[in-house]
Amino acid sequence: HVKNCLPELATRVTEQKRIQEDILSDLGPPLEDPMGMLADFIRIFCRTFDDEITGRSCPRNETGGMALREVFEKLVCEELEKIKLPDNIEKDIEIEIRKTSGPKPALFTPNIVFSNLASKTLRSFQVPVKHAIKVTSETVTDIITTTGRDVFGSYPNLKREVHQIATNLLHTKLKKAEGFINDYMTLEVTYINTNHKLFTLNRPKVEADNNKNEKDNMPFEQKNVKMIKSLLELYLGIIRYQLTDVIPKCVMCFLVSEFNAALHKDLIKQLFDPERVDTLIMEDPAIEEKRKRASQMLAALQKAEVMTSVLE
Description:
By secondary structure, the protein is an all-alpha fold. The protein has helices spanning 2-27, 34-54, 64-82, 89-101, 111-122, 126-151, 156-190, 197-213, 220-271, 277-280, 285-311.
């Protein structure tokens, strides 16, 4: 009877042995070279993060780079496109003209009227611009978290330390990007460049279209108001176009590329310490216990395999 059961028993032992071997393979070998393993972990983390940003060797359908592009397209392009001249702009233009002309009727419209109104409207661009940078930083933080979870899954201490160092570095780069954008927006608000090539190139057409649509009996001041409104729309469109190009470049340069370039050096500098390595490369106790049980089970199955072969 025992011999009749041996083939089935041997098959089950072989299957269970393969299962335990797969478990041990997934868990990886026990820790032998902590410093070497730490260096490998840091290298893999940085490479995986870079792959997420660039989209290289990434098995997932949605990469971090795609998420960043969505920020640029939706939060920058679409949000800036929504900013229009206020509904009461013509009233604002009339008031500005009267403020600059004093008690006498204006025979011409001074440049200060156009500059003041353009600066005022450009300030409203700052909200979506700053929001885009903030969301980009949050997106990169999510990539750091996801990458850390994938790479350091069974090493919670190392995962926590890497996340802290990476987010601190990101915060530094965020401040640099914000500083650049703040300076750039200050330049645009402070100096309204009516000699901008695109403005001077398109201004004659805007003025011609405006004159064509004017009614013969329209008061001079009202004609001025309509003209200034049309020129404001032209100028704001030019700045909007520039921002949709400048913001992604600024974010990718200061916030993403500089962060990516400095990440490996920062992690090595702060983590590669023989006195800390045992704490950092401390496995989750549950993983250690699982490996121990699998090793014991595999040893028992190997003995069972030998016994069944002897009995056969």
